[in-house]
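Researcher: Before we compare anything, I want clean individual predictions. No alignment, no superposition, just each chain on its own. First chain goes here; please echo the sequence and then give the C-alpha cells.
Model: Echoing the first chain and its structure:
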Amino acid sequence: MNNIDMLDNCNLCIRNCNINRNKNIIGVCKTDNIIKIARADLHFWEEPCISGKGGSGAVFFAGCTLRCVYCQNREIAAGRMGEEISLSRLVDIFFELKEQGAENINLVTPSHYADKIMSAIRMAKERGFDLPFVYNCSGYEKVEVLKQLTGLIDIYLTDFKYMSPESALRYSHAKDYPKAAKAALAEMMRQQPQTIYDEHGMMKRGVLVRHLLLPSHRKEAEQVVKYVYNTYKDQAAISLMCQYTPLGGLDNYPELNRRVTKREYEKLLDFAVE
C-alpha cells in the first residue's frame, strides 16, 4: 500500500472522495494528511471485556467518514476538535497508555487514518509492543483497506447501524451502509473467526458487533441481531446499546427527538435472548 499515492487521490474509505489530502483538500472525513486526535486516555466506559479494570487505552481520532444526524460526538466527528500529532508521537502514545495500565489500545474512528495507523502499529511492534489493538469503527468500512490490516488488528469493535438502506440514507447519508457493513463484517470475521477471552474475561481476539438502538427502530435492531446471529452464530459477540441521547438539531427527524424507552430496549433484549 502506497500511503502517499492514497492520500494524493484519497480512497481510504468507502466514500471514495478522490481528493488530494496532501494538499489540504478536505473530503467527507473533514481531515487532511496530518494525524489529528481529540483525546488519548484510559477509557472505562466501553464493554466490560474491552475496558476491564485498567481501562481501554483509547485514542480518539478527529473526523469521521459518516455524517450521522444524531452524532453523539459532533465536534470531534466534524474535525473541529483535536491536536495534530506526528506518526512517531502516535507510537509514543501507545506506550504511554500501556504504562498507565491500559488493557489494550483502542483506535476510535480510525478509518480515514488507516494508512498511518498501519505504520504506527508496525513501528510499535518493532519496539516490542504487546497489547491487543482494537479497531473501533462505524462498520462503514472498505474491504480492500481492512485486508491490509490483517495481522495488525486483534479485536474489531464495529458498529452495525442499519439493515435498511432508507434508514442509512436518512440518518447517515449512506444508502449503501447495510451492504458495506455486511461485507466489512465478513472480512473482519475472516481475520478473527473466533472470539478469545483470557481468564479475567478480557477479549484478546475476535469481533464484537455493536448496535445502538434508536427510538422507534426496534424492529430494525432486531433485523441486525438476526442477521449477525444467523450468519455467524456464536463466532461474533453482540453488544446492544440503549444510551442514545438526542442532542438537538433534529427538527427534521422528530422520530429521533427522544430517548429510547425501557420497554423498547427490554423487548430488543428479549428478542436477542430468544
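Researcher: Okay. Second chain, same rules.
Model: Second chain and its structure:
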Amino acid sequence: MEKIKMQTPLVEMDGDEMTRILWKMIKDELLFPFIDLKTEYYDLGLEYRNATDDQVTVDSANATMKYGVAVKCATITPNAARMTEYDLKEMWKSPNGTIRAMLDGTVFRTPIVVKGIEPCVKNWKKPITIARHAYGDVYKNAEMAIPGPGEVKLVYVPADGSEAQEITVHNFKGSGVVQGQHNLDESIESFARSCFEYALDTKQDLWFSTKDTISKKYDHRFKDIFADLYESDYKEKFEKAGITYFYTLIDDAVARIMKAEGGFIWACKNYDGDVMSDMVSSAFGSLAMMTSVLVSPHGYYEYEAAHGTVQRHYYKHLKGEETSTNSVATIFAWTGALRKRGEMDGNKELMEFADKLEKATLDTIESGKMTKDLALITTMKDVTVANSEEFIKAIRKTLEAAL
C-alpha cells in the first residue's frame, strides 16, 4: 500500500529508559511502514536535558505552540539517586511540569477499556476521565530546608509600592522544611473552562473536588472560580445538554468514586490529579492502559502515556533479559496525536489510520495475545504472554490484516 502523506509535522518528544526502547519499536513496526511520518524531533532523554541545561524542554514546548500537536514519550523526573546515576548538573524539574506551564492547559486522562480486563472496582462500568490542572501547586513550588530555630514568613510586596503584607508560616524550634506554592486566577479559569467545554463535548457529568474546608484561601479560590464560571457561562448549557456539574470535598469524592458507575469527568488540582489518575488507571487494569492529553485553551495538544519510564524493565533490558512491557498507552499517545494532526489538517486518511491502529491494538489483546501485566489480571483463559517486541509485532500483523 502507498504510505499515508502528512502535510504538517508533529512535534516528537523522545524520552527515557524502557519507554524510549518501546518508542523506537512502535515507530519501526507500526508507523514507518504505513505513514510518511513527519516529525520535528526533540530528545527529552535525561542525558540531553542535562547537556542542554534543560533548554531542549523549553524548545519542544515552543515547537508545540508552533505546530499545534505534540506526542511525548515518558521521561525521568530526577531525584537524589538520579543525580548520582546520571551525573547531573542539577536536579532538573519535571519536563511535564515545564511543558504544562508553558502551554497553560488541562490534562485529561482516560482508561483504555478492553474486553477481558475487568476493573478492580466491580461497579465501574464506564471509564472515569481524570482532568488534571496543568499548572502550579507543588510542581512549581519554592522550598527550603530549615537548618535550625527561626521564623519563616510569607511576604507579599505589591508592585505599586503600597504596604507589604506578611504572615508567619511557622516558628521553628529546630530543623525542618518549608514549601511555598502558588497558582494564578487566569490559569485556574482556563482549567475550569477546559473542563466545562470537555464535559459538553463528551456529554459527561463533571465533578470537581478540593479541600476548601482546610485550605480556606488557596483551595477555596479554585472552588469559587469554578462556581462563578459555571453560573455565568455554563449552567444553561449543561442543563440543555442534560449533564450536571458537581462539587464536593476531595475525600468525599474519593469515597463516592468507589461506589460510582463511571462515565464522568473528575476534575482535580495538579497533585490530586497526578495521584488519582494512577489510582484510576491501575484499578481499571494497568498503568499502561491510560491515555493522557494536555489540552490548551490556545489550541495546542500534547499526547503521552500516563505512566512513567518503566525503570525496572529497562534495567532487565540492559542485562539482556527478556521484558514484557505494555506499550498500549504509548501507542495510543501516537494515535491520539496522529488523529488530531489529521483533524487539524483535514487529512481523513491519517485519522482513519489512527482509528485502525487503536482497534488493532485492542483486537490483539482480545484475541488472547498480551503482555504479562494484562495476562496476570485477565478473565480470559489460555492467553499467550508476549514479550515487548512480540506484542508490538502481533499488533502489526492484526493491523496489516485490517488495512
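Researcher: What stands out in the second chain?
Model: The first strand starts at residue 10 and ends at 14. Additionally, The chain is about 45% helix and 20% strand.
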